[in-house]
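Standup notes, structure subgroup. Blocker cleared on the nickel (II) ion input:
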Amino acid sequence: MDIEKCRITYYPAQVLAERAQPVEKIDDSIRQLVEKMTDIMLENKGVGLAAPQAGVPLRLFIISIEQTKENVKVYINPTVTTTGELDSAEEGCLSVPGVATKVRRYKKCKVTATDLDGGEFSEEAEGLYARVLQHEYDHIEGLTIVSRMGQTARIIHRRQLKALQNGNDP
Ligand code: NI
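Run returned:
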C-alpha cells in the first residue's frame, strides 16, 4: 500500500461500496495510513474518516469531534452495537460533497475496537458522537449516506448525485 498515493474517494467509487477487510497487523503502514487520513479529514474539515474514503479497503476509521489533531481517536476492526431509539438529523459526508440529507440513526451505541498500540477498548456513546460512529461504521460496511437516502432525498439531490456519477469531482 502506497500511502503517498492515498486521496479522498468520492461516491460512487467502488471502494466505498464494498465491505472492508479486517486489519491483520498494526504496523508502520497502518500508522502512516492513520497520519494520512488525519490530514485528509482535517483539511476537509471533517469530524470522521474511514479508510475506504482514503481508497484503502480496511476496517479502520478515525474520529475527532473537535476537529483537532490532538483529539483524533483511532478505531481498528471496530464493532458498533446500537441501542435505544432512532433519531433523524442532517448529515454530510466528505465522500459525497454537496449533499446534506437527513439520516435516521440510533441515539446510543457502544463501540469496541483496537487502538494504534494494539489495545482493545470499549466506549458508550450518545448524541453526535454516537451518530458519527454509526456513519463511519457504515463506511467500512460499504454504505454511504446515499445508501441511507429515501426516494424523496434522491430526487432532491439528483443533480449533485448525477454530477458525482459523471466524475465531476469538486
Ligand atoms: Ni462519510
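Discussed briefly. The beta strands are 48-50, 60-63, 73-91, 101-114, 120-126.
Next: hand off to the docking folks.
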